[in-house]
Amino acid sequence: MFTSLKFRMNAGFMSIIFVSVLLVGLAASMYSAKESLRNFESHARRQMSTLAAMTEFFYDEVRNDIDQLAGSPVLGGVDPDMRRYALSGKGSEPPFSGSEGAEREIYELFEHYAMYHPGTLRVCMATEDAGYVQWPEADVAEDFDPRTQRWYAKGMRAAGRVVEMEPYLELSTGEIVVRLVRSFKNMDGASHGVVAIDISMRRLAILLSRKVIGESGRVMMIHTSGIALTDLAFPESDLKNVSELGIEGFERMFGPNALFSATIDGETHILSSVRSDATGWIFAAVAREKDVLSATRAIQKMLLLISIGVGLVSVILIIVFSSVLTEIVRTQEAHIRESEMRHRIIFEKSPLGMIRFSDDGEIMDCNDKFVELMGSTREKLMGFNTARRSSPEMREKIRVALEGEPSVYENEYTSVNGGRTLYLRVVFNPIEPGKNPTGVIATLEDITEAKKAEAALRESEMRHRVIFEKSPLGLARFDREGVITDCNQRYMEIMGATRETLIGFDALRRSTPEMCERIGAALAGEPSVYEGEFTSVTGGRTFFMRAAFNPLESGRRSSGVIATVEDITERKMIEREVRANLEELERFSRLVVGREERMIQLKREVNDFLVARGDAPKYKIVE
User: Which strand (E) or helix (H) includes residue 194?
Assistant: First the structure.
């Protein structure tokens, strides 16, 4: 029986199937374990990166805020009479809100800031001469000298940079607090003190509580100083050093991105961490290894049943199909993420303001350039319904776009949120043209400077036009072909022609040869002058003319010529009369001079005759 061919064949096939199923099961088990770890790492890293980005954004907002406070003239012009506990020798004094002068202004500035920035626990400032103001009002210890505080010393050393203190637990409020500090300068530009903002990490803790990593996963925030700030699953570990939490190999969490296993309370856990250098926080996802690999065990059982039920071929086909399908999906997801990233970069980095409206006109997204143009903040702009709360003309343009048709707004506009007035050109493009209603993408361009340039150009053109029209000389403009394109009233009078006759006249080809030569020289880029008698072709008037032809572009073939024409007929007539008078005077002079010479000669002959007779000369002749 055991040696029969049928048995051997069945045994062989069974062995092959068994070995194949075993190998496939082991391979699938190893693969699924790696995939589980990879999926855990990928999911945890995405979640942690998101939290890191949100924290960085939150810190950047606070840094920008404290920079604005430090640059405020209210702090720069600190009153020397500000209260100084270290010098007064007494603690609690009247409330800052009831004081006068700089103290009250600073307190109101801090109060206004805190009103619009939820999560702000405290805002305070200290000067180099021990002055101190804080919001909210609280009792201050007797002889309190802020200059002895670590935050004051650290802020002064930072010399204008925003720095943060280590997080701590405020026992009176139960808040987890991080203090950011920055030095500020007085009106003379010298370092004068430090301003500080205490922020609550409670909002981040709430966000962490919503992050679920597997069945037993939890999220931890660890400061680079080693403080475990937030561990919602085990709140008793708050503000403990990570070295006290019993995590073997915890040092690896301080790397840029770490994935490792560690024993916690006698049980193996998987940890994946992301480090944010911008904030000094490490975000770590922690889950029990058995929970991470629980899917692997289920897959092992499922593969065993499938292998027994359908055999080796079905298992291979399923594995191949799954691998191919997974690769296709991953490739498509990568393409989609890449496309989304490209479009997001274009949206955020565009030199134009960009907005995305919902189909009822509410702002759903905008870039930094739009925030700048409106002179507002992103918080005020997001959710603002422009279709209902903007100017009438702007509302009309948005309504057209929301109904599926493109529209353009170009006019002066005053921002409702920021109060800034500027000339805008806004192009509204429906996301789904022809659909009503539809979302809208709008691009905004600040054309204020262009409008100013247009106005200046119009004013300049008007001034030149007045000079052109009122000139006592005849003025005419020729195009590059020598055709008259414009002329003033005096030019028409000199030529004895009407504007209709002159405009369009081809002076380069239909004027006198000498005039054509002068116009041609000017069109070639060289100034020329014509002076002489001229008969107007268009008016028939003959007169003496002096014409100066100046090219619009000297030194090369010009795009046109400006001619200055003067009627010098009267001057020429006067010159002729003067020349005639001079000739007559010259003839008279010649006659007079000839008569005098004959008289002198006659006197000389009489004197010679008298001398010959022995008499004295009668005439005295001056040589």
Answer: strand 191-200
Domain boundary among 567, 587, 603: 567
- Same domain for 76 and 191, yes or no, is yes
Q: Where are the beta strands (DSSP E) in 210-317?
A: 218-223, 227-231, 240-241, 257-264, 267-276, 281-288
For residues 553 and 447, state if they share a domain: no
Give the Cα separation of 399 and 390 in Å (integer): 11
CB 85 within 8 A of CB 140: yes
How much is the pLDDT for 5? 45
500 and 445, same structural domain?
no
Residue 325 Cα to chain centre, angstroms? 44
Long-range (24+ apart) CB contacts under 8 A made by 544-551 are 544/568, 544/569, 544/571, 544/572, 545/494, 547/515, 547/518, 549/518, 549/519, 549/521, 549/522, 550/522, 551/522, 551/523, 551/524, 551/525, 551/526, 551/527
Total number of domains constituting the chain:
4
Beta-bridge partners for 134: 124
Q: Where are the alpha helices (DSSP H) in 350-391?
A: 368-374, 378-381, 386-389
Give the pLDDT band of residue 97 (cuts 50, 70, 90). Answer: low
Task: Provide the whole-model pTM.
Answer: 0.42
φ and ψ at 182, to 5 degrees? Answer: -155, 140
Rounded to whole angstroms, how far apart are CA atoms 193 and 370? 35
Residue written as tokens 């939820």? 118
- Domain shared by 561 and 582, yes or no: no
- As given in the structure block, the two tokens for residue 623 are 């040589």
Question: 3-state DSSP call for residue 266?
Answer: coil
Look-up of token digits 């203090």 = 179
Residue 355 burial (10 A CB sphere; 0-12, 13-18, 19+):
buried
Residue 232: per-residue pLDDT? 47
For 198, residues 6+ apart whose C-beta sits below 8 A from its C-beta are 120, 121, 122, 123, 177, 178, 179
pLDDT of res. 99: 66
Give the domain CATH number at 532.
3.30.450.20
Return the sign of the alpha-carbon dihedral for residues 17, 23, 27, 30: positive
Cα-flanking dihedrals φ and ψ of residue 238, to 5°?
A: -55, 135
pLDDT at 89: 55
Angle between helices 102-115 and 5-70 (to 10 degrees): 160
Strand, coil or helix: 224 = coil
Residue 157 is predicted with a pLDDT of: 92
Structure tokens at 434: 């022809």
Q: If DSSP states are collapsed to H, E and C, what string results for 128-171?
A: CCCCEEEECCCCCCCCCCHHHCHHHHHHHHHCCCCEECCCEEEC
Q: Which residues pair with 477 in a beta bridge?
A: 486, 562
Ramachandran bin of 475, using left for φ above 0, alpha for ψ from -120 to 50, beta for the remaining angles: beta
Which token pair is 199? 């922020």
Last residue of a domain, one of 157, 172, 200: 200
Any domain includes 282? no
227 phi and psi angles, rounded to 5 deg: -80, 125
